[in-house]
Amino acid sequence: MGAQIKGLVLSGGAGTRLRPITYTRAKQLVPIAGRPVLFYCLDALAAAGITEVGIVVGDTEAEIRAAVGDGGAFGLTVTFIRQHAPLGLAHAVVVAREFLGDDPFCMFLGDNLLVDGVTAFVDGFRAGSSDATILLQRVADPSSYGVAVLEDGRVTRLVEKPADPPSDLALVGVYLFRSSIHEVIAGLAPSARGELEITDAIQGLVDRGLRVEPRLVTGWWKDTGQLHDVLEANRLVLDTIETRIDGELIDARVEGRVIVEAGAVLERCHVRGPVFIGAGARISDAFVGPYTAISRDVVIRRAEIEHSIVLERARILDLDSRLEASLIGRDVEIVRAEGRPAAHRMLVGDNSRIEIL
Q: Count of alpha carbons within 13 Å of 216, Cβ hemisphere only?
């Protein structure tokens, strides 16, 4: 069966690219189709037969602890590991050293989604003898990622966010390592941006002649660090749901694949899936279009919305125009003001109020 592989999930980042949402919420807990993105990561590790998981946390530790609990809901035993400053992915391995011991491990960035999970990659690593396995995918904008260069199928060079990318093979946020990585990281110096880079650590393995195996991800992968990626991940996950109506429909028309959780009430509205509607939501005299995920206790009245995510307890009331491609924070209130209606696209932080002209 091979050696036990531990999981290491990185959930300590500040999520600056998703501000203002992440001023008041961990980016790993932004919901995708009604579930925090972090939960999909934990599900993937459990499905791969990994049962011991360390979660590296930072300033949002309390919120992540409250959401994950002891890991039992995922079939995992979870250990929380504090990283006091975001000093790089390789630094997260340093602070997790005691938890990891000398066991091989799968490092998973907690805001990444892979439609096909990681089971095949973990099984291949478990059965093989490589010192590391890195997941790669071809991307249109490699300068935004760590990039790998392959020669004859072998990894020869890695570059972090290069201005002039040497290839279009981006590092996906999942890595598999054996204990040899610890000695390499111990000898690293911080990069120009003051971080211990995981790309430098993998390059160190290559330079020592150790085997780094590249694996190409062919299914979809999303790093949910920016608004358009969050909305796209939401769309992709919603495309996989099956209809489940546990809430109450009153003169409501529902088309396509729709989940309505218990306690939600839909009255005199039209819902065209795929759509997720959370517990306690109240939707009346409204249109909810495809690829929308509505969290618990949201109120939508006399409004239209599609291709959006609405977080807990938000209120969207009396709009004359459709809201689309938006991420609406917790306790936000969006209401119509007097004036000529227009089109709107928003990234709105928690506890806000917006008047639409």
A: 9
Residue 1 inside a domain? The answer is: no
Percent of the chain with pLDDT over 90: 56
On whether both 59 and 184 belong to a single domain, the answer is yes
Rounded-to-integer distance, Cα 31 and Cα 190, Å? 33
What kind and span of H or E run contains 17?
A: none
Q: How far apart are CA 42 and CA 68, in angstroms?
A: 9
Q: pLDDT digit string (tens) for 173-217?
A: 899 999 999 999 999 888 888 888 898 999 999 999 999 999 988
Q: Is residue 180 part of a domain?
A: yes
Q: Residue 181: which domain range?
A: 6-237
My answer on whether 107 and 164 are in the same domain is yes
Q: How far apart are CA 97 and CA 322, in angstroms?
A: 50
Radius of gyration of the chain (CA): 22
Closest CA to 325 of 345, 298, 349, 355: 345
What amino acid occupies position 110?
A: G
* 26: pLDDT strictly greater than 50: yes
Count structural domains, the chain: 2
The secondary structure of 233-271 as a DSSP string is HHHHHHTT---EE-SEEES-EEESSEEE-TT-EEES-EE
109-168 pLDDT, tens digit each: 988 888 888 999 999 999 988 999 999 988 888 888 888 988 888 888 888 888 888 888
Residues 258 and 180 in one domain: no
Q: Which of 221, 237, 253 is the last residue of a domain?
A: 237
For 200, the token pair is 């430098």
29 and 162 inside one domain: yes
Which of 176, 203, 237 is the C-terminal boundary of a domain?
Answer: 237
| Bridge partners (DSSP) listed for residue 291 | none
Specify the pLDDT at position 110.
Answer: 86
Phi and psi (nearest 5°) for 190? -60, 145
Q: Which domain CATH number covers 41?
A: 3.90.550.10
- Exposure of 208 by Cβ count < 10 A (0-12 exposed, 13-18 middle, 19+ buried)? exposed
Q: Give 29's DSSP letter.
A: G
66 falls within a domain:
yes
* Nearest one of 154, 178, 135 to 2, comparing CA atoms: 178
Do 201 and 246 have their domain in common? no
